[in-house]
Amino acid sequence: MELLMAVSIGVLTACGIYLMLRARTFPVVMGLMMLGYAVNLFLFSMGRLATEAPAVIGRAETHADPLPQALVLTAIVIGFAMTAYVVILIIRGRKTLEHDYVDDRVNERDHGVAEQGLSKRAVPMPPTPASAETDGEPRP
Amino acid sequence: MLLGISHRESMLNILWILLLPLLGACLPLMAARLGRAWCAGLTVLPVLVALALLLGTAPAILAGQVLQFELPWLGQLGLALALRVDGLSWLFALLILGIGVLVILYAHYYLDKNDSGGRFFALLLLFMGAMLGVVLSDNLLLLVLFWELTSISSFLLIGYWYQDSGARKGARMALAVTGAGGLALLAGMLLLGHIVGSYALGDVLAAGDQIRAHALYPLVLVLVLLGAFTKSAQFPFHFWLPHAMSAPTPVSAYLHSATMVKAGVFLLARFHPALAGTEMWGLLVTGVGLATLLLGAMTAMFRHDLKGLLAFSTISHLGLITLLFGLNTPMATVAALFHIVNHATFKASLFMAAGIIDHETGTRDMRLLGGLRRYLPYTAVLATIAAGAMAGVPLLNGFLSKEMFFAETVQARVFGTWHLLVPVIAVIAGGFSIAYSLRFIRDVFFRATPNWLEKKAPHEPPRYMRVPVEVLVVLCLAVGIVPMFMVGGLLSVAATATLGEPAPAFDLVIWHGFDTALQMSLVAMVLGLVIYHFRRRLHAWHERLPLRDVRFVFEAAIQGLGRVSGRLANSVVNGSLQRYMLLLLMMAFLLPASALWAWPHWTGSRALMPVDPVTAVGVFILCASAIGTVMTHHYRLAALVQLSAVGLMVALAFARFSAPDLALTQISVEIVTIVFLMLALYFLPQYAGNRSSRGRLIRDAGIASVVGAGVAALAWAVMTRPLESISGFFLEQSVPGGGGTNVVNVILVDFRGFDTFGEITVLALAAIGIYSLLDGLRIDAPGRPPGQLINPHPMIMTVVSRPMLPIALAVALYIFLRGHNLPGGGFIAGLITAVALILQFVGNGVNWTQDRMRMRYHPVLASGLLLALATGVGSWVFGYPFLTSAHTHVHVPLIGDVELATAMLFDLGVYLVVVSATLLIIGKLGSISAVPKSTEASH
User: Fold this and answer.
1) Containing H/E element for B898?
2) Last residue of some domain: B545, B564, B592?
3) Is the same domain home to B338 and B435?
4) Rg, chain B, Cα only
5) Under DSSP, is residue B506 helix (H, G, I), strand (E, B) or coil?
């Protein structure tokens, strides 16, 4: 049973990470959710697996570890809040940027043709420290 | 021991000596608008009081006492606010406060009307306090703290005229060099504390033999010396000092002659009992001092700028002092301390004189000046006397310490067979020192007056601007004529404190026979005249030298560093979030993986549970849906459906493994999330084709598999090990302490209630954040004009959803009430309520539902949070810690035994927050594209 749990956690992690590395926002959100499942199960399994042993006094002979359960319970709710927030960000981002790519540099090597109507501006690079240091004076 | 501890009030007084300038730094800022005179007056006030307090301790100090004050601070770190006043720190504190008063007076006249007096004086007091902290600290860490404060405050003072690029660069260079030295010093002090086992200065100084015998001694010595040498501008770190001359002249007079650069030599003196006395100390300190002495003296001769000359002269004199400390004889220490005092007096007055010349003529270039004695006769006399002291002319204080220095160099044996090197270089440097002093006086005050200066006709500065110079020059004379009366006793106690043993008997007299020292002085004087005579040829020769200005080298190095780090940063931080994600994941994986790579114990000793077929099927479905989600993620709706299957299987897994609360939470969150994502998908492309290259897909799949395998292995390793948990406490205390049998819920609302309070706060914040992100946003769904949806709310949905609401609410109430004893509680009840209400939105439309449910979510959200907070605070009223719960059982017909605990109120708060946050989020998202009422009404 432990092996099955470990495999499930591994598969969920792998799928989550694969999706998080995608170029567009929606799969990334799905990946985050998947990773959330994996992490919750992982945390939960830190209390070890037990069957027929709910952490309710008087309802079972032995009790599963209640502490990871309490932690995971809040993690599930917070996970929802985070997912919701990220989703709203991508909706807002799509409205503003007119595309739903994680990166703004859609025309570069990794993606073939840009989606129609995409903005094509590149990410403005911050000035290099060297150029900021010169104070506009001629170099010696 | 001749050290004694004195009475209480003087102990508190030494705290005030330190605090007055630090706290007083606010005064000039507040007085700035009252005018310049008020500003300077209020600045000088705390300094005068501190000086009076210091002088009040004089009898005790001169009697050989040590005053100490200690206030515990961060005991675990070994840091205490511990101060000590002994002969050495008293001498330095006197210089800092005494010359400080004179500099404030001088600066009052020096600063231009447009300069911000408040900022200047505040920084000056801050620096003064920091400097006092360095010399008064009785704790190594405290000393480093104030040391850093001197670096920072001097940075701000040097860059006072920040509009000027030179001032900015000079300040930056000073900060870079002294700051780096400060880091080295910190490391050295930490090592010292490690060796001795205490950061108390007294312990460290008493453990000299232990330190010198320790294997880390060479490292400690080098680190501490780095701190001292950078601060005292010793070769090869001397280059920042001349560039710090872009500071206002009062700052130069104070920081770069009398105080800040003296912090380095103070360090040499302070740690003398702990570190000195080895061959390494002798070679390093003497060698560096000797090199600095010669280099500074020679370079000073080639400077045309008055302040540049004085800066290199300062470097040279600091080298002289360092050299004396390196010689490590009791008399050399006395001579070093004596020269510290003498140099502070004559150099401060010379800087002030240079400032007056600059102020009155507008230039500091000696090639342009000349004949100023006709216009500034009084200043000319003062400057000449001070320069005489710098050159070491008899009857002036510089002469006495220079004679002592020459006498010591003859006896120096640190360089073995090369021992003559020290006196020879000392004489050469002495010659240069006489030459540049002569130049300072003759080129500025004598010679013929240039034409431009005649037209300008400069005049004497204001009467009181000269007072500080007069005081200092009188001191030069007094010390030079009656040395034993002026400083004999003070030097004796300072040398005692420095050496850690009684100081040698010494006699400061002007005439001690035609001995070696006097002969060396005479040779140096002749040499100086010769050098001065051939100065034009020397200058011409110097100009042909292929020397590069250190500033350019430093700037080029800084710019090079900037370029390299910029390139490095740009190559990593290239603006691609995808890449950041990748790097982050790789790091998160590689760090633990590198530690666990060769771990042999992946499988623990815990007995495994048997596999049952139902669970195996469940795991298969879970994995299949997860992989299916990945395979079909371009078809987003299909992927979402499969993702929801994953979530359901996770909920079932919780149920299977004895976590009913988690299962209930997961399943209700799952419903809310999927509904939410469906709604979100309405505003996003439904299909997104594959645009990634094949190589990238394989790479990502590889990374994901490896990380997944690593996490699975880790989970396996943990799960197969026996459990040692703190949960026994919760299981035992749940009923007696929390009054509930559902331990998970009791943990949430009672034991870890404060965490839960944090969680619901986050939830509320997320909801409000989402609301504000969406507020005012209006998006039309892609490809579908509004108002043209065919039958958006099917009849069967409408019919089923409406009666569901009361049923679901009743279930939620039940789940809420039983939560303390059986699976359930505020989180789950809140989610069930939210699902029931969301169903109404789905079944009947946003407008229909909102018309009937005139609830504003924000107040509910806030009241939920406040209720939870009030429950926690309520226990304060009864004198218990935050969120202590009280409970009692009440039997309610039909429902059964109901727990009435204050924790339930807290849970009610949780419930309200969960309901209102969820509805706020979904309702807002639903309404940004809602068909306007008029359109819907027509259906």
Assistant:
1) strand B896-901
2) B545
3) yes
4) 40
5) coil
Domain edge (last residue) among B518, B545, B572: B545
Asked, for residue B229, whether it belongs to a domain, the answer is no
Q: What would the pLDDT profile of B297-317 be if each residue is shown by its tens digit?
A: 999 988 889 999 999 999 999
> What number is the average pLDDT over the span B764-792?
73
pLDDT-based confidence at residue B495 (cuts at 50, 70, 90):
very high
B638 and B753, same domain (yes or no): no
Q: How far is B729 from chain A (nearest CA, A)?
A: 10
Mean pLDDT of B830-854: 83
Query: Cβ separation of B684 and A84 shorter than 8 Å?
Result: no
Look at residue B875 in the predicted model and tell me its pLDDT. 76
Are the C-beta atoms of B515 and B403 separated by less than 8 Å? no
B102-118 per-position pLDDT tens digit: 999 999 989 888 788 88
The sign one gets for the Cα dihedral A26, A28, A31, A33 is negative
Q: Give how many domains chain B has, as a whole number.
A: 3
How far apart CA B768 and CA B750 sit, in angstroms, is: 26
Kindly list the residues from chain A whose CB atom is less than 8 angstroms away from the CB atom of residue B612.
Answer: 1
Indicate if B462 and B318 belong to the same structural domain.
yes
| A46-55, A79-88, B71-80: range with highest mean pLDDT | A79-88
Instruction: Write phi, then psi, for B833 (nearest 5 degrees).
Output: -60, -45
**For range B86-100, the mean pLDDT:** 93
Q: Does B280 reside within a domain?
A: yes
**Angle of the A2-20 helix axis to the B694-719 helix axis, nearest 10:** 150
Task: Tell me the Cα Rg of chain A.
Answer: 23
**Option in A55, A73, A82 nearest B665 (CB):** A73
Do B683 and B749 share a domain, yes or no?
Answer: no
C-alpha torsion B276→B280→B282→B287, nearest 10: -130
Domain edges within chain A: 2-133
Residues 43-72 of A with CB under 8 A from B: 44-60, 63-67, 69-70, 72
Band (B679; pLDDT cuts 50, 70, 90): confident
Please determine, for residue A13, whether its predicted confidence score (pLDDT) is greater than 70. Answer: yes
Distance (Å) from the alpha carbon of A107 to chain B's nearest alpha carbon: 11
Distance between CA atoms of residues B707 and B599, nearest Å: 17
B898-905 average pLDDT score:
72
Packing angle, helices B87-110 and B8-24, rounded to 10: 30
Instruction: Give the model's pLDDT for residue B413.
Output: 80
With an 8 Å Cβ cutoff, is A85 touching chain B?
A: yes
Q: Are residues B750 and B676 in the same domain?
A: no
Task: Report the alpha-carbon distance of residue B729 to residue B743 in Å, rounded.
Answer: 11
Could you tell me if B300 and B444 lie in one domain? yes
User: Distance between CA B740 and CA B372 in Å, rounded?
Assistant: 94
* Amino acid present at B315: I
pLDDT in tens, B345-379: 999 999 999 999 998 888 888 888 888 888 888 99
For the CA atoms of B473, B474, B477, B483, the dihedral, rounded to the nearest 10 degrees, stands at -120
B350, B389 contact by CB (below 8 A): no
> What is the nearest CA distance from B582 to chain A, expressed in angstroms?
7
Q: Does A120 touch chain B (CB under 8 A)?
A: no
Q: Looking at the structure, do residues B760 and B674 belong to the same domain, yes or no?
A: no
With 0-12 / 13-18 / 19 or more C-beta atoms within 10 angstroms meaning exposed / middle / buried, residue A117 is exposed
Q: How many Å apart are CA B534 and CA A93, to the nearest integer?
A: 76
Give the range of the structural domain holding residue B651, as residue numbers without chain letter: 617-689
**Which residue, chain included where needed, has tokens 């090369």?**
B418
Q: Which residues of A touch B709 (CB under 8 A)?
A: 10, 14
User: What is the H or E stretch that residue B70 is in?
Assistant: strand B67-74
